[in-house]
Amino acid sequence: MKTIIINLERKTTNFKELIQEALNHNFLDILVSKEVFQEISQLERLITYSKDLTLPVNNFIFSDIDKVKRFNPKSESNPANIGIYRELITKDDEKTIIELTETNLYDFIIVAAKDWKVIPYENLIAAMHSTDTKLIAEVCSIKEAELMLNVLEMGVDGILYTPKDADELEELKKITKSSVKINLTTAKVMDIQNISESARVCVDTTSLLEIGEGMLIGSTAKGFVLIHAEVFDTKFISSRPFRVNAGDVSAYILVPSSGSQGYRTKYLSELKGGDQVLIINTDGLTRVVTVARVKIEIRPMLRFELVSSVDNSPVIMSVICQNAETIRLVDKNGKAISVVSVKEGDEILVHIGPGATHFGVPLKEKIIEK
Fold this sequence. Notes:
Layout: E1 3-7, H1 15-24, E2 29-32, H2 34-40, E3 47-50, E4 59-62, H3 65-70, E5 74-75, E6 78-79, E7 81-88, H4 91-102, E8 108-113, H5 118-128, E9 134-139, H6 142-148, E10 158-161, H7 166-177, E11 185-205, E12 213-220, E13 223-228, E14 243-248, E15 252-256, E16 263-267, E17 276-281, E18 286-310, E19 313-322, E20 328-330, E21 336-338, E22 347-352, E23 357-358, E24 361-362
Helix pairs in contact: 4-5
């Protein structure tokens, strides 16, 4: 998930409206000052940031490198994260920021680029994407926020923004809903196998899903198949627009992450109410929804084996779905088709995965899944 820090250091005339609107849109990362801290100190949901080292906040922001070295925020009495604020004006500033990342002193770095923006942030993302330090861009407008969240496709890890009014928070919410885009391609169905019974997982969300949306599910981390939401009415059953009948208990599902790919994996068997999962549409745009409940029942299933390619090399993947008319995959034209109608040779929308994961996190190591 992208980190969206809302700057509410100044106690403006619309301060209470801004904090309420931030809560309404689940913007819980708030930059505060001593002036406003008392106003929000009773709101337990908030994740607080401050440049004032005397406040009991979750995250301290430094501007002086030497001061960080003298300060020990991660004591038992104060386990706060630490970050640093840096302006980026010259190439030397860019180099310094990258060097600061390599010190492992900082959980995050907030960067304010005054003139050049895209190129410096592209360089920083390329240098920092494999580190544990979050890159936060200070932005001056909603348009700039959208740009920074999508630089080099993966975007920065987060933004710092000072809203003028509640409407801007509404606009910010709209662009952060689809700040991660996942590349979809096609795979050809090679084989279909009947499985007499399996533990099947239905994922019921707290959101209404739409035509063209679903979840990416796979039996291996090499590839994930787009399973469509149950948004269609039929002669025998009404739609369940909050539900994806996802697959068997051992399958992987994509869930949100602040890593470079924008996702990690979980087993369907691990999901529970309150978890968050990624919803993906046929254009690859994602949004995060919350799980209301998970239903696991024994049902007859179908196992689909598919093949796609990367750099002219075949990628074999598979997915196991309930054998029922209401469960749908998505064809190469974006049309939802029932699993009982899918046949060998059909082309289905898929996402090529990282190929290796450890506790859901992509790894660069050799692994065999078959």
